[in-house]
Design goal:
single chain, alpha+beta, Beta-Lactamase, 2 domains, six-stranded antiparallel β-sheet, five-stranded antiparallel β-sheet, disordered N terminus
Length: about 250
C-alpha cells in the first residue's frame, strides 16, 4: 500500500497533473496501442508453440540435447517469452529452454497445468500469474496442450512471460495506468505492479459485447476514467486508466 501511495503522490506532484483527464489524454489511442502490442506478442507466442509442438510431435529418436537446443533457438526469437517448458502428461518437466537437463520437477499440482489438461484444446490459453517454482519470480503462463499424431495428449507447452512484457514500449499517455484481464475477470497484470484495484474494478467496466468502452472507475481511493478493449483473437481485455483529480 505504501509503495502505491508513493507512486500516486509522485504523479500528483508533476506539473499539469490536474489537467490529466479524458479531455486531454488519449485513452482510446493508449488502450489501442496496448491491445495491438498484446495481440502481437500472443501471435508470436502462438507461432512459437505451434513450431515447438511440431518438433516434439515428430521428434522420434532425436537426441534430447538437440531437441532442447532447437526449442531454445525458437524461444530466443520471441522477445516476450522468457522461457518455454514442456511438461509431459504425468506432470513431469521434460524440457526447459533455460537449462539442460531440465530440473526433475513434478508440476502436476500447478494450476496452469491442470487447467490446460482439463481444457484439452490445442489453442493457447492465457492464465493468471503464478510464482515460479524454481525462481520464485511471478510470471504469466501461456499454455497449449500438445497432442501426438494419434491424437493422444503428450503434455502441455508453457510459455513463461513476465507481466512487464505486456506493456507496450510506445505509449500515448505518460500518466496512465494499465491492466489486463481474462474475459472471466481474472487479473493477468497491472502497471505499475503495486497498483491496487478495487475488488469490483472489472465489474465496474460494464463490459458488453462490443470491442471497447469507457467507464468511471476507481484506482485505490482515487476516481479514474478507464477505457477497455477486447482483443480480437484472444480472450483478453486490456485497459488504460487515468486518475481524474481536479
Amino acid at each position: 500500500m505504501k509503495k502505491w501511495l508513493i507512486v500516486v503522490l509522485g504523479l500528483l506532484g508533476q506539473p499539469g497533473f490536474a489537467l490529466a483527464n479524458a479531455n486531454n489524454v488519449s485513452l482510446e489511442e493508449n488502450v489501442l496501442l496496448m491491445a495491438t502490442h498484446v495481440e502481437n506478442i500472443l501471435n508470436q507466442t502462438d507461432g512459437l508453440m505451434r513450431r515447438s509442438a511440431d518438433l516434439l510431435r515428430n521428434a522420434g529418436g532425436m537426441n534430447d540435447v538437440v531437441i532442447q537446443g532447437s526449442l531454445a533457438n525458437y524461444t530466443s526469437q520471441v522477445e516476450a517469452v522468457r522461457a518455454l517448458l514442456f511438461i509431459n502428461s504425468k506432470g513431469i518437466l521434460e524440457f526447459d529452454t533455460t537449462r539442460h537437463p531440465a530440473a526433475n520437477l513434478d508440476l502436476s499440482d500447478r494450476p496452469y497445468f491442470s487447467k490446460a489438461m482439463a481444457h484439452g484444446d490445442e489453442h493457447i490459453q492465457i492464465q493468471t500469474p503464478v510464482l515460479g517454482k524454481q525462481s520464485g519470480v511471478p510470471f504469466v503462463p501461456v499454455t497449449r496442450v500438445l497432442r501426438g499424431v494419434s491424437g493422444s495428449v503428450m503434455g502441455v507447452l508453457v510459455a513463461v512471460m513476465t507481466p512487464d512484457a505486456w506493456l507496450p514500449s510506445e505509449r500515448a499517455c505518460r500518466l496512465c495506468f494499465y491492466s489486463a484481464f481474462t474475459i472471466e475477470g481474472e487479473t493477468i497484470m497491472t502497471a505499475p505492479a503495486q497498483m491496487q484495484l478495487a475488488d469490483d474494478f472489472f465489474e465496474s467496466l460494464m463490459i458488453v459485447d462490443g470491442r471497447s468502452g469507457i467507464s468511471e472507475t476507481r484506482l485505490n481511493t482515487y476516481p479514474a476514467r478507464t477505457m477497455w478493449r477486447r482483443l480480437r483473437d484472444y480472450p483478453v481485455i486490456v485497459t488504460s486508466s487515468v486518475v481524474t483529480i481536479y
